[in-house]
Amino acid sequence: MTTSALHRALTEQGDPVLRPLPAPAAELLLACAAPPRLAAHLRAVHDVAAQLLDWLAERYPRLAVNPVAVLFGAATHDIGKIEHPAELSGPGSRHESAGHRLLLSYGVGEEFARFAGSHANWDHPEASTEELLVSLADKIWKGARVPDLEQLVVERLAAAGDEQPWQAFLALDDVVGRIAEGADARLAFQARYPTVAG
Ligand SMILES: [Fe+2]
């Protein structure tokens, strides 16, 4: 029996080394027969979110953040693209509300489902730290830098670390720069997988 491209996207270990998705997220993607390209994208963003969380635990241990929610959110944020596959390779926001609904329909609680609807809308005052981190991971996985988004994260870090914003800015800039160095390998990994199931 040949292994499906989706299964390979979820399990491949090589270049780059990407952490496996949380089991409930991987099971959902298999149950929905997700496009392999989507699973590969979610692994790339999830791995970046995990790198950010590792760094935060070390550098900002007092930052109030639920790492399990961030990891699940990163692992499922684009799941609505199962229903809107054209948005895998083109622009569009219909996947956002669709993904939120899909997760809720599978019994995922709002605390874990919200990222699918909010990952593109980080620029509002009620955005949680978890939501900002998922949105940030969804940018820096491919090396994209969004100063306004990073500034919002800097404000949370400065408050948690009891330090000046410029100190938190330098700290975040350093780790984001290091993570962004892996962008080419992640982009190549994602591009190896087809946008249609099979
Ligand atoms: Fe994404």
Topology record:
Elements: H1 5-11, H2 23-31, H3 36-59, H4 67-76, H5 86-89, H6 94-105, H7 110-118, H8 129-140, H9 147-161, H10 165-180, H11 183-191
The structure holds fe (ii) ion.
> According to CATH, what is the topology?
Hypothetical protein af1432
Global mean pLDDT: 95
Order of helices and strands: HHHHHHHHHHH
Q: What proportion strand?
A: under 5%
Shape: globular
The count of β-strands is 0
Q: What report would you give on this structure?
A:
- The chain contains 11 helices and no strands.
- By secondary structure, the protein is mainly alpha-helical.
- The chain is globular and about 50 Å long.
- The two termini are 13 Å apart.
- The mean pLDDT is 95.
- The structure holds fe (ii) ion (FE2).
- The site of fe (ii) ion has 5 residues, from helix 3.
In short:
With 198 residues, the chain is mainly alpha-helical. It has helices at residues 5-11, 23-31, 36-59, 67-76, 86-89, 94-105, 110-118, 129-140, 147-161, 165-180, 183-191.
Comma- or semicolon-separated keywords:
single chain, 198 residues, mainly alpha, Hypothetical protein af1432, 11 helices, binds fe (ii) ion
